[in-house]
Amino acid sequence: MRGLLKLTIGLVALVGLLAGADRIAVGVAEDEAADRLASGGRMAQPPSVHIEGFPFLTQALAGEFDEVRLSGEGMTVGDGKEQVALRSFSARLSGVAVGDGYRSATVRSGSGSGLISYADAARLVPGAERLELSYGGPGKIKASVMGVSIGQGDVHSKGNTITADGFRLTGVASLLKGRAASLLGPRSFTLTELPAGLNLAAAVPQPDGLQLSFSGEHVELIG
Prior knowledge:
Layout: H1 2-39, E1 48-51, H2 56-62, E2 64-72, E3 75-78, E4 83-99, E5 104-116, H3 118-124, E6 131-135, E7 140-145, E8 148-158, E9 161-168, H4 179-183, E10 187-190, E11 199-206, E12 209-222
């Protein structure tokens, strides 16, 4: 009986040691993945990386992780000329396969989200240096020039391009012609620099900015 008790205690201790080693290994891997994402150009700076599933070492030996979560502040998106801050970024990646000594990684599918402010969105609109944008209600944004409201329009996206159109002059601005009217034509910008190699899925106006949703399949994460 005493021998069985010693064996049980020994097994519990061994399991504890293995679990501890597994958690240490996953922590090291998460830090390394964050650095590689930043150095490889997929992210503007190292994100917070969390590798799901237990045990980690079994997944590592198989060369594929069931699920990886990314998050961080200070990420950016851009149109190839201008980069703006992407706030509250988070992503969930499924089926992350690694190879070449962890120097490459592909994702079976992924999704994510983040927010850009209206001031930053306006910076991405070509030829609209004085244009100011703000929340206009569900699916809509307001436009103004030098503090004077000139209209309200709808926001939608196709591919990686975000477009605001259907603007209507309101109030005093409805009496204006020429330059004011020309500012209300469809305005769009295309994002060519997106986090983690994902694509834009949707852009939805919110009170504090444009909420961007991302998605992708068979994405090259590192390499």
